[in-house]
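Researcher: Here's the sequence for the chain we discussed earlier.
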Amino acid sequence: MGKKAAIIKGDGTGPELVNAVLHVLRSCNSQTEMILCEAGSEQWEKHGGATYIPDSTMKLLEESDACYKGPTTTIPRPNAPRSVAVTIRQKFELYSNIRPIKTYDRLSPNKKLDFVCFREATEGLYAGIEFKISDDAAIAIRKTTRKGCQRIARSSFAWAKKYGLKKIFAITKRNILKETDGIFWSEVEKAVLDNPGIEVEEYYIDNMTQQLVKNPERFNNSVLLSTNLFMDIISECASGNIGSIGNVYSANIGDKYAMFEPAHGSSPKYTGLDKVNPTAAILSGAWMIEYLGEPQIRDAIFAATEQVINEGKYVTYDIGGNATTSKMAEVIAQIASQKLKK
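Model: Thanks. This is the structure I predict for it:
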């Protein structure tokens, strides 16, 4: 039986990016059944409800082997629903949000970066536990559990082992957040004992952002590991070093399910202009196909994308070209399908 993936079109530029992804995957003759569905603020504005994810979409997510999420918009109002990504991460316990950070030769001729960010994705400040205690004050709770910290620590060490990486940088603010980051750090220390040969160094979040600006190469061939909000900030800061947030792809992986998505937002001002960079969207889709058992397609798409970016002829405005979204996707699809035929 072939695998089944739910494909959320998303908001803003989401649908055109999803079209680009599907074109590339189908050109590579993927055997995965891909079913389009709706979720996000645009459909919520039309239909309302308590969540951005309609019941029909949630049912499809539950019946699929993995899902792909086009960029969605989260409205920053107190009465608006929780984000699509956070909802899916918490429902399916997708505790590892993984963002690889890798430079391209043409975009970063003087800087070579290659490391991966591991973010706990089910708790922390994203647990959404907030209280208004008066008209002038509110409290947010940073939920930290031993189980949550243990899962993300172990998965980051498993990645390091799998890819032969010898170092993990754990990012905390343990001098201030003694209890919550104390639990996180103790689980990192336990994981070290179970994984001899992998070294751990602790960085405080404020120093870490400085190092990513000043000397990001020091983190090459390592895993950066942290709690939900800290690693959201760190991975975004790291993204600034690789040419465009439009290049940053990501996965959210649990024990039994996974969601794949570009790391960037929905860019509503560019909706319908066929202008935005499809790199992160396409690479996230390729990663999903690998997860669903077609690694050769993933390899061909990654190689094709790297070739297109480094040649610089058919790339979008943000990475030095003037190609449309669909043209860049078309060229990646052609090269990837040729690689698979060899």
